[in-house]
Amino acid sequence: MFSLKPPKPTFRSYLLPPPQTDDKINSEPKIKKLEPVLLPGEIVVNEVNFVRKCIATDTSQYDLWGKLICSNFKISFITDDPMPLQKFHYRNLLLGEHDVPLTCIEQIVTVNDHKRKQKVLGPNQKLKFNPTELIIYCKDFRIVRFRFDESGPESAKKVCLAIAHYSQPTDLQLLFAFEYVGKKYHNSANKINGIPSGDGGGGGGGGNGAGGGSSQKTPLFETYSDWDREIKRTGASGWRVCSINEGYMISTCLPEYIVVPSSLADQDLKIFSHSFVGRRMPLWCWSHSNGSALVRMALIKDVLQQRKIDQRICNAITKSHPQRSDVYKSDLDKTLPNIQEVQAAFVKLKQLCVNEPFEETEEKWLSSLENTRWLEYVRAFLKHSAELVYMLESKHLSVVLQEEEGRDLSCCVASLVQVMLDPYFRTITGFQSLIQKEWVMAGYQFLDRCNHLKRSEKESPLFLLFLDATWQLLEQYPAAFEFSETYLAVLYDSTRISLFGTFLFNSPHQRVKQSTKSYSSTLRGMPSALKNGIISDQELLPRRNSLILKPKPDPAQQTDSQNSDTEQYFREWFSKPANLHGVILPRVSGTHIKLWKLCYFRWVPEAQISLGGSITAFHKLSLLADEVDVLSRMLRQQRSGPLEACYGELGQSRMYFNASGPHHTDTSGTPEFLSSSFPFSPVGNLCRRSILGTPLSKFLSGAKIWLSTETLANED
Amino acid sequence: MRNLRFALKQEGHSRRDMFEILTRYAFPLAHSLPLFAFLNEEKFNVDGWTVYNPVEEYRRQGLPNHHWRITFINKCYELCDTYPALLVVPYRASDDDLRRVATFRSRNRIPVLSWIHPENKTVIVRCSQPLVGMSGKRNKDDEKYLDVIRETNKQISKLTIYDARPSVNAVANKATGGGYESDDAYHNAELFFLDIHNIHVMRESLKKVKDIVYPNVEESHWLSSLESTHWLEHIKLVLTGAIQVADKVSSGKSSVLVHCSDGWDRTAQLTSLAMLMLDSFYRSIEGFEILVQKEWISFGHKFASRIGHGDKNHTDADRSPIFLQFIDCVWQMSKQFPTAFEFNEQFLIIILDHLYSCRFGTFLFNCESARERQKVTERTVSLWSLINSNKEKFKNPFYTKEINRVLYPVASMRHLELWVNYYIRWNPRIKQQQPNPVEQRYMELLALRDEYIKRLEELQLANSAKLSDPPTSPSSPSQMMPHVQTHF
């Protein structure tokens, strides 16, 4: 397959396009097609022609010729050249193959080979040389390289400066999400992945995870009723929705509606709130069917009041427990790595996975991976969450998560505990509502932690760590989740596309405040797709996991060994076959915590198993599931009388692959586009500089880029 | 990998007896007792000894042809006592040539054909090291013989030689009379060393693996402990070597000669793995049995010495987990290509279990001549009898039969994993979910599909019986059904 060399047109072929014989519909000259695909509100800022996109590190024979544009949303490379070494049938709906959203850019390096100069471009900087090469380091581990050998030097420089400027906005308002005003989501608001959803709000709050998941509307926890429904869903009898934060009168980093113990009066809460860091009163997250509640709470900064308030709150939580059980407090700051440590681990992981020469890291791969500490931290979060599951489930204790501000580690732990305990959160709708509840509404600082404005020292990939930990559970219990690992990877990617408001802000209040500036309506009046990017049709692919079993209506709690110790609890639990509709606990030994290869290796060409990977088995499973689906439909129609065109419905198949799709006419073999990176492709997405280059390019290909930008920036 | 400890409650008399009986029966050879395989009277409805018939297997490969012939020169194991009776050699080499070449190859293990590419007719040839020695001896017959092999392939002017050893080891072997093919003696050959270490290194490496997984799994620094065993690194080198062989034959269109020192350990690993990558037939259950039977058992991998069946001398330096390492490599491949193999993990595990069990005759003795002397096929049962009479249990539901697809696994530490389900299976805490939930779901869906199809057919029958008018509409069930089936 690698010996197949595609015909490589030179840049001149755009001036004199070869006559097309087979293409009758597109009879216009090719040059007309080199237009970017723009979203509503998107405008082209600058562009340069005759740019070469580098595809392989060691050869230029696969390079593509085209136009590089910078818009207020993305960098786009438009080419007519066919993509080499790749036969993909799937496409991202928002972004082209060569597009990089501006918010996904980590670092911009311009190079002039002849003058042996390079510079990391910051916003509003000058560039004293004409770049011959542009290297974009992306936050999602990609490295994209463009060469300007044949392009106009001035326009190349302008585009580089434009990219530097627009990718590093000084103000939140300059992010593209505020320009993105189209009809698109108005039409698709009630459609998820092209499938019309059933009834929007009503059915969502029903039974314990009953139903298919994605056809329900994700509760956003912005309204009183969403919280109320969650109370009823979990059967939390001693808890009530409290409205004292309406209009964010108490705290700007809490949702407007919070759930509190019924025994605490609004007036008391108002008084207590002053003592908490950020006025963050205790927040109810979830209740176990045995009545134990999961609560998150910030520190009480008022030393004098500390004991008294703490006592009052704990008593109230105890009172809300049907068995009046005690409260178990978990101090997350003391037990888990802090956000700086998580960030440091992530930087090392990224370094190891994509930036360092593949072969050189092979020999010490395992110990290098260990030294990043990333897996150790994933394990620590899982382990601690599992211990809290034991407290809630077996000891019947309510658990209070304590953290200074209560808006970082708590988000991760609270979510993981719920994913383990409640099968509803393993459906797509449930998982999304969990992210709304424990991250977006609970004030996780997406803006700072994702570093959208590229000036924050507070960057930390805690959300990714949560997705990674969820992936570990998915890997261990593949049939317990409605979604697949691709869904998690796409979710991670969507934190770096500034289209939707979901992952853009530091707090719910900021979201409302910022939104009213650019929209005449309030946030609540906004189209749902904007509020909740994760469920809109961002991608062509339905990301369903065909493994899911129909959730049972009553996840009965059989285990009732209240007095066993932790060790015994885990031992007993693992000795029994897991009930996928009940609690799932992670195995956390070194052999079980693995690297999430799809997420971290998807751009690494050397690590790609072509025609292989677990996706090939998944592909077969999907085909079969689809087939069974068609058969059961036929069966139903047979019973209900005359046959109608049951094939017309095939398009609605919710599986990843259709048994009768146009690309699967021959299902006997593994489709060529499948690889361990599917549905992503490393082709052209990880173009490290050749190791065999000049001293300069060696320097650029090396480890230094991502770590010490200062030394680079000073040389120009 | 486990140690068993028994405590006897009764004090006094019985302990010593028990111990003696245990040692006697655990190490029967040291006590002049027969191995259990010779006492085993199990009956199966399939005879595993008929699985491998060399003539049939070579015929499947399209042999003999006008470049290669089948010879019975070794019928009485006179040419080479560790080779099989039947060999495939170049048509242009006479039996006398073979005898002269044998004098220049360690233990007379001359280059013979293992596999031929169905389309480009390049071959994989295996042998032992040439007896070059310190003085750098040459042998015109050996040089000519390799040239004859080269000439069977017209596409490339060179023969590629893969010496499995690290080059230093190959040089060191000269001191004991061995060596490798030098450039000046073999003009038309290109030699590459594959850096795979010897049996002693592998044995020590596996010992270290045992130390980190038994009795307790190393927790705090799992990955670096695993790295320090070097086990996966060795797996990587073996796989990398096999990939190079396969790639050379398939894309490089060059014939390949593989050897190590004696050509029964690393050589068997490389040829069999390369054949597994190249030839989809070997990825079926029977094909794999044939592969093991051919490249390992018939070509004299010294199972008796490497495993030490019934022998009490557990520190024997001849012991080494070479075959286990091969199976591990196969497992790594099956992880990377979940749909490419007809067999499942259980199949590989049961092979390994009976590698040690002595319940079957399959892995007994060092070579074909010894097996023939002991009448193994008459006096013992074959492992393949057990497996083939119970095939469903060992089938991979995701298997997709594909002809002519070459599998190139990624031999990178990023993808290689410790085979937890085998090495750590005795640890209750590590136990993985059995059966694999994805597999389980697939089986459920298969059953569901069959049920639906059955019910659909029944309904259609009932409907068409009810309908008095003839089925003319396009919605006729009888017309729909075959249409449905074409989709899948």
Automatic annotation (TrEMBL), chain B:
Residues 48-423 form the Myotubularin phosphatase domain. PROSITE patterns: PPASE_MYOTUBULARIN, TYR_PHOSPHATASE_1, TYR_PHOSPHATASE_2. The gene is MTM1. Heterodimer with MTMR12. Interacts with KMT2A/MLL1 (via SET domain). Interacts with DES in skeletal muscle but not in cardiac muscle. Interacts with SPEG. Lipid phosphatase which dephosphorylates phosphatidylinositol 3-monophosphate (PI3P) and phosphatidylinositol 3,5-bisphosphate (PI(3,5)P2). Has also been shown to dephosphorylate phosphotyrosine- and phosphoserine-containing peptides. Negatively regulates EGFR degradation through regulation of EGFR trafficking from the late endosome to the lysosome. Plays a role in vacuolar formation and morphology. Regulates desmin intermediate filament assembly and architecture. Plays a role in mitochondrial morphology and positioning. Required for skeletal muscle maintenance but not for myogenesis. This is Myotubularin 1. It is a peripheral membrane protein. Keywords: Cytoplasm, Lipid metabolism, Membrane. Signal peptide: none annotated. One of its GO terms (biological process) is phosphatidylinositol biosynthetic process.
